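user: can you give me the structure for this one chain? tokens are fine.
assistant: on it. calling the predictor now.
[tool input]
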Amino acid sequence: MGVATTVIFWGFEFGADAIFHSEPARFVGGAIGLTIGYVVKYQLDKRFVFS
């Protein structure tokens, strides 16, 4: 589960950096990716780990 959420995080972080070419955009993309990754991880854990 952690690998999938890490890919989401890196995808948003590097994607924002590739699109906007700035460090603040990379940080914002990382924050968005981290948030989405945690939500996805929670749903996956709730469904498959703690069921």
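assistant: here you go. Helices lie at 2-20, 23-49. The mean pLDDT is 93.
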